[in-house]
Amino acid sequence: MRILGRALVALLILALLVVGGPWAAVQVMSIDRTWTDADEAPARDVGLVMGAATIGGLSPSGYLQARLDVALELWKQGKITVFIVTGSTSDNEPAVMRDYLVQNGVDPLDVIEDEGGLSSYSSCVRAKEVFGVDQLTVISQSYHVPRTVATCRMVGVDAIGVGDDEREDNDALRSYKRRELAANMKMIYDVLTKTDVGTLTYDPSVQDALARHR
Known about the structure:
The protein is α/β, with parallel strands linked by helices.
């Protein structure tokens, strides 16, 4: 029985390390770098708006619109100059995001679509390697921001984040929050193994857009 007890304790400790380690890493890497109020956030030239589901590939879902509204508030306050809208093309996320920002006053030349952002990890890697960005503001829901900030920092991007905290705390949102534990573990795996994110051909569009404002 003692051997069984020790084995169970060892398994429990291992489980705590596997789950708790990545969670702790995210907390440490994002401490004092996330906000839920655009008024309080510092300015950064580039905003990385994380994708979410669209409605029929034509308009943003409620969660995505909330992210975009945070992005617009930062832009109106002069805290973001150029946006990278990153997400999946399976339901037209980058194009829908770009259209929403442009319809609300952002110059089309200041909104760059990243069609290879299939995960937070890939979006951060591509921001650095494809678009040449080494400093940015992540924009998403507040539960998602710490992991994305941590991810970007781990791949060499000096990131802060602003998150939407206005969505109703319903079953769907609670489910997304619970999934963050597993997502933290996957993120650490991706960073450590340098998971392939596809071709990383340099695209000067973000740097060209920034140059227009200098």
